[in-house]
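Sequence in, structure out. First:
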Amino acid sequence: LISMMTTDEQFLSWGWRIPFLFSIVLVLGALWVRNGMEESAEFEQQQHNQAAAKKRIPVIEALLRHPGAFLKIIALRLCELLTMYIVTAFALNYSTQNMGLPRELFLNIGLLVGGLSCLTIPCFAWLADRFGRRRVYITGALIGTLSAFPFFMALEAQSIFWIVFFSIMLANIAHDMVVCVQQPMFTEMFGASYRYSGAGVGYQVASVVGGGFTPFIAAALITYFAGNWHSVAIYLLAGCLISAMTALLMKDNQRA
């Protein structure tokens, strides 16, 4: 949005700073919400029963007791990270450089999916409470799996309608269905005394492994296969399928 409201010179000079300054408002809002929340009964019981003896650093405790949980978190976040980064980052460069599509198309798509997420995430969270977190998660991951090839086929056909449609299917529907239930799923993998540390570190490691490298891996695949998009579609499909299979094999700990 800022890039469309400013010239290239203005954006490079000061425009790019505006979203970062706006994040101050988001942080203050998050702190206000967090201060108004009560701790879970399980956590309060853990504090009450906590032994006086000095314990190991929580993240070390989490690594020693639940090493497999970190791998599960990486696998579960693949769908979220690949759908978002491929649609909003990789496709922006690929479509302009290889397809000749206007740059504004994916900038507007990024704005659209961001706005829709304000509605879809609460709706999917409500569905997760009603029908179960794992069902919603698996459904979202499978939607991402089924939308991978059609998204790139729409790019190749340069069909604006289908590009927007499958961008929403990936970066809104699939992405938001998995992201709205991730945090409770992740925290339930760890004990109450080191839950925050375990889930937090696992989440950030997954961000680097599954998200940070995604645009570079996708670009490398395009280069290696001489501009053929099928390899990136397979990469996206495989990531979503791995997330779906991981969730399917997990025990459902959600309480009624």
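Second:
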Amino acid sequence: MANEEELFDQENTEPEQPLSEEDASIAEQSAASEDEKKDDLAPSSSEDKGAALRVDGSEPDDGRAWYVIHCYSGYEKKVRYNLEQRIETMGMKDRIFDVVIPTQEEIEVREGKRRSIERHVFPGYVLVNMILTEETWFVVRNTPGVTGFVGMGNDPTPLRPEEVQHILKQMEAEAPHVKFTFREGERVRIVEGPFNDFHGHVAEIDVDRAKVVVMVNFFGRETPVELDFLQVEKA
């Protein structure tokens, strides 16, 4: 089974097509039809959220699934805004339920100070929970900033439930991810603890435990010191 990173590499390279008069007419008719019945069919926002973001990755049995759209890196929030506006104005709330940018809180150290940043887990990609039809495909695909669906041609590939579960659990993790970009042999400075302000070089990196071993000169002898990622910075 392909993991989500492999799936995200299958980006669609189809060229962006201008909106034809026929497509515009279809969109207008769809919006008018949906406006008449959305009051009866559209679930409340709280129901949308609960149904779309199930932690176990399962979906209600109405044909909805999670799809991946591609956009230019750095424009994810703009694309989400544009798509949410189109969902509202074109009466698609009962078929396009949620638009999610996979992010993760990350802690980094700069000049001895910790700061929290929001990192995009998959830069250039946005998740859409929807029932795939010709109309919903049209609305999403022609959103400004969207360059295509992940999948083959006009047949987008839905995410597997276990892939959705993994992504959502990453986003809901209580402990923030610690950013660490050092390499073995790189010179660093210890910024807290008994060896505060000591300099040394990275000897080992344990990503799973978020630990690093730094060799420092202590009383004229190279001494290994195990530290948290947040206790060191580039020298």
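Remark: The CA atoms of residues 52 and 75 lie 23 Å apart.
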